[in-house]
Specification:
alpha/beta, seven-stranded parallel sheet, 7 helices, 38% helix, 18% strand
Length: 226
């Protein structure tokens, strides 16, 4: 089986890391990235669609056909947003996109990036966790061939990948000298952008025993965990 993947969020840290692993993998035949702005990369496997409004997919519906995986890495911060706005940009946008994909590709595997601490009960005190949990639950109810919820916590960016979040980059600069020690002390709590990409490829090819993948599961699925 060869993977033909659609990736969203490829201009962000997680999405860019996943894209690089897909381009490097012999198991991935083609990649379609759908983004609001150009990623600035060229590759024989790579096709790019610039889409300003993810709620209107009418102009690209036919181009979504023929893919067997979606690595949905698109996301926004909840900082400064009301629950209504964050719900629209997270739950409604993601489920709208996923619904369009399943209609075109019923045999697709869908990998969704939420985050550590996501609340599956949808009743917790943290707004972002409730909304992410609601989004996860909606995707899990959809008839994709397989669905995996990626819940990374601490991610070490590799291969020159950088976060678009200034706060994350600031914290990373401070912690960077300590990361080798942290990886040795807390190997199950830290993953890398490479491992996230490899894990998505591997669960698409081979499946995984859990629907929710925390950092340690991501590392195991990538072939780097214990």
């Amino acid at each position: 089986m060869k993977i033909n993947a659609i990736i969203t969020g490829a201009t962000g840290m997680v999405g860019k890391g996943v894209l690089l692993e897909c381009l490097d993998s012999t198991d991935v035949e083609s990649v379609l990235i759908i983004s609001r702005r150009p990623i600035g990369m060229k590759h024989t496997k790579l096709k790019e669609i610039i889409l300003s409004n993810f709620f209107d997919l009418s102009s690209v519906t036919e181009e979504l056909k023929g893919y067997n995986a979606c690595f949905f890495c698109l996301g926004v911060s909840s900082l400064g947003k009301s629950e209504q706005v964050y719900t629209n940009l997270t739950y409604h946008l993601t489920t709208h996109f996923a619904d369009a994909l399943i209609k075109q590709n019923p045999d697709m595997t869908f990998c969704y990036v939420s985050g550590a601490g996501t609340d599956s009960t949808e009743k917790g005190k943290f707004m972002w966790a409730r909304v992410k949990g609601r989004t996860e639950n909606a995707i899990l109810a959809m008839p994709f061939r397989a669905k995996y919820m990626f819940r990374p916590g601490i991610i070490i960016p590799e291969k020159g990948v950088k976060s678009r979040t200034k706060l994350y980059n600031s914290i990373y600069v401070i912690l960077k000298p300590l990361l080798p020690y942290m990886k040795n002390l807390f190997p199950k709590s830290i993953t890398t952008s490479i491992n996230v990409g490899k894990a998505m490829i591997n669960v698409t090819l081979n499946g995984y025993g859990k629907s929710y993948l925390e950092n340690n599961d991501i590392n195991i699925a990538a072939g780097k965990g214990a």
